[in-house]
Amino acid sequence: MNEEKLKIALSVSDDHPVMQAILQVLKDAEEQEVNACVLPNLLAEDRAYNCGRAAAIKDLGAYIGMLRGGKELT
Question: Of 29, 32, 26, 28, nearest to 61 (Cα)?
Answer without folding.
Answer: 26
